[in-house]
Specification:
Rossmann fold, 6-stranded antiparallel β-sheet, 6-stranded mixed β-sheet, 15 strands, single chain, DNA damage, Glutathione S-transferase Yfyf (Class Pi), Chain A, domain 2, DNA-binding_RecF_CS, binds adenosine-5'-triphosphate, alpha/beta
Length: 366
């Protein structure tokens, strides 16, 4: 998967941008607030996913303008393809000349993985952020998982409604068995899918981390759950173990008035040389761990689609030492990479690729 060209008109602070990138590494360098992330976001929009920043579609249109247009030419599935997005007045989404009703219909045609400073939260914050990352990554490679998660959440909220009622006036106790059965059926699938995916993700992330740290540090990733079973355990056995655990937690649940146990409280651990990365990791180690997970996510996407997604790395270099920067610049094999940075020193070690300068929304070769 490669971007062949991108043009932007009226998009955020970008001037008329026309980008012809390298097949490998592209560095976009510039001071703060010049438009580097806006350019990365413009590319990302063609994945059909929501922006990786907390913004709305109407924010894409440059202040004072009525329309923003993005055009992308890319290679995928062995052929050249095109897509166009027009925001604001006369909104339009085109893929290979065919009109689409929503950006979501572009999903799967053009694939990217993005790393932005917000992804540091995977390491630095609580279990819910890691669960969201894990579930989001799985949904990309196993679309049926969306249905499984939905069914689990539905059963869980039904059970929670009963527990709340029970907590207040002691009614409907036997309904809990019904919902626990349903939770065990769907929860076991969530558990097994996550454990299997995380095993693969962890292996990939560990070898990327090994490269980033020049083999000086070791990252280990492990799923944390109330169930301690092998990922190869047949599903009926996982369901039975799940049901049993729910039964054992019944007193806690009724006392608390909500479900105290289940995959909705699972987590995964990230350790660097045996120490919890969240608690003991340095800034550079935490950034390296988050980056390794995101890059691993990209390489796992390739296993399914057959193509390495475009890697968009926003502000990845700060806090990384020279060895780590050099790995990002020169060792992401097979991928087209876009890297933003503020400091020209950050790409001194670039062996091959193209460097662009972003200044007040205008892009030029450096
Ligand atoms: N719709 C818009 N119209 C005009 N300007 C906008 C719009 N949306 C964002 N901007 C401006 O774009 C500028 C550049 O933002 P961007 O996030 O791309 O900067 P950056 O080069 O990545 O900076 P940093 O290195 O600080 O992350 C900001 O000053 C912002 O106010």
């Amino acid at each position: 998967m490669k971007v062949l060209s991108l043009s932007a008109e009226g998009y955020r602070n970008l001037a008329s941008v026309s980008l012809c990138p390298d097949e490998g590494v592209n560095v976009i360098c510039g001071d703060n607030a010049q438009g580097k992330t806006n350019l990365i976001e413009a590319i990302w929009n063609f994945t059909g996913a929501k922006s990786f920043r907390p913004s709305k579609e109407r924010d894409f249109v440059k202040k004072g303008e009525r329309v923003a247009t993005l055009s992308l030419s890319f290679s995928a599935q062995g052929r050249e393809q095109s897509a166009k997005l027009r925001y604001g007045e006369r909104r339009e989404i085109l893929l290979n000349g065919v009109s689409k009703a929503s950006p979501a219909e572009l999903a799967g045609s053009f694939c990217c993985v993005v790393f932005s400073p917000a992804h540091l939260s995977i390491v630095k914050e609580g279990p819910s952020v890691r669960r969201r990352f894990l579930d989001g990554a799985i949904c990309q490679v196993r679309p049926r998982y969306i249905h499984v998660l939905y069914q689990y959440k539905k059963a869980l909220s039904q059970k929670n409604a009963v527990l709340k009622e029970l907590y207040k006036n002691g009614a409907a106790y036997d309904l809990l068995d019904v919902f626990d059965d349903s939770i065990a059926v769907w929860g076991a699938q969530v558990w097994r899918t996550r454990v299997r995916y995380l095993n693969k993700l962890g292996q990939n992330a560990c070898s990327i981390y090994e490269g980033l740290s020049s083999r000086r540090e070791e990252l280990t990733v492990g799923y944390k759950s109330f169930l301690s079973l092998s990922p190869d355990t047949p599903l009926p056995q996982v369901q039975a173990a799940y049901r049993e655990a729910l039964r054992a937690a019944r007193t806690d649940d009724t006392g608390a008035g909500f479900s105290t146990l289940g995959v909705h409280r699972d987590d995964f651990s990230l350790q660097i040389d045996g120490l919890d990365a969240k608690v003991y990791g340095s800034q550079g180690q935490q950034r390296s761990a988050a980056l390794a997970l995101k890059l691993a996510e990209g390489y796992l996407l390739k296993e399914v689609s057959g193509e390495t997604p475009v890697m968009l790395l926003d502000d990845v270099m700060s806090e990384l030492d020279q060895g780590r920067q050099s790995y990002v610049l020169n060792h992401l094999e097979g991928a087209q990479v876009f890297i933003t940075c503020c400091d020209a020193g950050h790409f001194e070690g670039l062996l091959s690729g193209r460097v662009f300068r972003m200044e007040r929304g205008a892009l030029s070769p450096a």
